[in-house]
Amino acid sequence: MRLKDKVAIITGSAAGIGEAAAEIFVREGARVLLADRNGEGVAAVAERLGPNASALAADVSASADVKRMIETAVERFGRLDILANNAGYGIPGSVVDTDEDAWDALMAVNLKGVFLCSKYAIPVMAAQGGGTIVNTASNVATMGIFDRAAYCASKGGVAALTKAMALDHADQNIRVNCVAPGVTWSTYFDKMVATHPDPDAFKNKLKARSPIHRWAEPVEIANAILWLASDEASFATGSMLTVDGGMSSWCGAPR
């Protein structure tokens, strides 16, 4: 029960890493507000997890939604101890190939969403004496990959913002860290496999990105989020915990 009596918000929790984190947080004793643009999906997850999970349809790129999310957590549970900024997605393309509107939309979720959620959560945490924020960055924040310019830029921004917030709010007893996953199986890859002419070749290409020749399951990243959110990580702030099967240790990532 590493999160006993804690209250958490997890964004992007209708599937993937966010759903896995919500399940672990509830199991570890937290009361959790699950937020996602997919209202039906996140409601189904909350129902499955039981009375200590509550759902809210929210877009992290919209200030009004974020304010309502923070207010809802406090109204339902009385406080806010943990914010897991997990909402995000990727698109293919170099800077030449990436449409400007697609770039703006991705940045609004992946980077602005972290900014907005933290902006409105931090005053609540500070008023109650502290809290912790865990952002989902990526190993591409520091190494880059081919054909994902917007995604790499957004996650690099998340990593840098994590360090800035950790410094700005250390005196308020607020820890801010990020987890940096490698390739992690998600509904995003389910969709790509469904439309790929050679699904097995696609999967093998993903596996080849890691020296241990496999991708992560969402629970493996969620376990890292749990540690950063718990009191076991009480001396960690401004840190990036890389969980990528050794991918970032290579001299260069395969295409």
TrEMBL record:
Matches recorded under InterPro entries: NAD(P)-bd_dom_sf, Sc_DH/Rdtase_CS, SDR_fam
Keyword Oxidoreductase: yes
Keywords: Oxidoreductase
Gene Ontology molecular function terms on file: oxidoreductase activity
Gene3D superfamilies assigned to the protein according to its UniProt record, in alphabetical order: NAD(P)-binding Rossmann-like Domain
Keyword Oxidoreductase part of the UniProt annotation: yes
Membrane-traversing stretches: none
Domain of life: Bacteria
Family membership noted in the UniProt record: Belongs to the short-chain dehydrogenases/reductases (SDR) family.
Protein name: SDR family oxidoreductase
Organism, scientific name: Ancylobacter pratisalsi
